[in-house]
Design goal:
With about 200 residues, the protein is mainly beta. The protein folds into two domains: about 5-115, Rieske Iron-sulfur Protein (3-layer Sandwich); about 140-190, no CATH class. Helix content is about 10%, strand content about 30%. It has four helices and twelve strands, in the order ββββββββββααααββ. The chain has a four-stranded antiparallel β-sheet with strand order 5-6-7-8, with no helix packed on it. The chain is elongated and about 70 Å long. The structure holds FE2/S2 (inorganic) cluster (FES). FE2/S2 (inorganic) cluster binds near residues 50, 51, 53, 67 and 71. FE2/S2 (inorganic) cluster binds near residues 50, 70 and 72.
Length: about 200
C-alpha cells in the first residue's frame, strides 16, 4: 500500500525535455511527463482514454500530447482538445493529470486524490551542486530503500571512500531527527571531514 497524499520526486528536471515524452511508473501508476507550451512540466496518465495505448508511445506537439494510435490530442490538464475526423469532443474524453512542482532541479508530483495539502520539501542544495543527479534502479521493495536511507550507520563502511570519515566518526556524528506532518527529516553533521580513498592491502 502506498501513501498517496504526499509529494514524491518524479524526475530530475533535466529528464523532462521539451518535445519529448518521459514514461515513468509512480506508485504503481503509469505516468507520462512532458513540457507544455510554457515549458512547464506536466504529468498525465500514460493510457489513452480511447483504446488505452500508452500516451508515451505518441508524440509531443507544441506542448500537447498526440496519441500514437488514432491521434487524439491532450493538453496538460488531460483534456482531449482534438479528435481527428470528428468535431465533437465528448466531455469524458480525458485522462487524469497530476499537480507538479518543479524546484531545485527536481520535479515533484502530488499523487493524492485531493488537492495538495502542503508544498514539497525545500531542498535548495540540488540547485547549487555541480553534480546534477542520476538514476538508480533497485530490485528491492521501496520500504527497504527508505529504511536504508534513514539508517545511516552503514556509511562508515559502505561509503567511506566518498563521504569520508571513519566508522567511529560516523557512529558518533551529530544527528537531528524532526517529525513533520506526514514526514520525517534526518540531519547528520560531520564537520571537517575530508573524503578519502580506501587503500587496498
Ligand atoms: S488509442 Fe489513443 S486515440 Fe485511439
Amino acid at each position: 500500500m502506498f501513501v498517496r497524499n504526499n509529494w514524491y520526486v518524479a524526475a530530475w528536471s533535466s529528464e523532462v525535455v521539451w518535445g519529448k515524452l518521459l514514461a515513468r511508473r509512480i506508485l504503481d501508476t503509469p505516468i507520462v511527463f512532458f513540457r507544455d507550451q510554457n515549458n512547464a512540466a506536466a504529468a498525465l496518465h500514460d493510457q489513452c482514454c480511447h483504446r488505452g495505448l500508452p500516451l508515451s508511445m505518441g508524440r509531443v506537439e507544441a506542448g500537447t500530447v498526440r496519441c500514437g494510435y488514432h491521434g487524439m490530442k491532450y493538453d496538460r490538464n488531460g483534456s482531449c482538445i482534438e479528435i481527428p475526423g470528428q468535431a465533437n469532443i465528448p466531455k469524458k474524453a480525458c485522462v487524469k493529470s497530476w499537480p507538479l512542482v518543479e524546484q531545485h532541479g527536481l520535479v515533484w508530483i502530488w499523487c493524492g486524490d485531493a488537492a495538495p495539502a502542503c508544498s514539497p520539501p525545500d531542498y535548495p542544495w540540488h540547485g547549487d551542486w555541480l553534480w546534477k543527479g542520476g538514476l538508480f534502479h533497485y530490485e528491492a521493495p521501496q520500504e527497504l530503500i527508505n529504511d536504508n536511507l534513514l539508517d545511516l550507520s552503514h556509511l562508515g563502511y559502505v561509503h567511506v571512500q566518498t563521504i569520508g570519515g571513519d566508522p567511529n566518526t560516523h557512529m558518533n556524528a551529530e544527528m537531528r531527527t524532526t517529525r513533520g506532518d506526514g514526514s520525517v527529516t534526518v540531519e547528520r553533521f560531520m564537520r571537517s571531514v575530508t573524503p578519502r580513498r580506501l587503500t587496498c592491502v
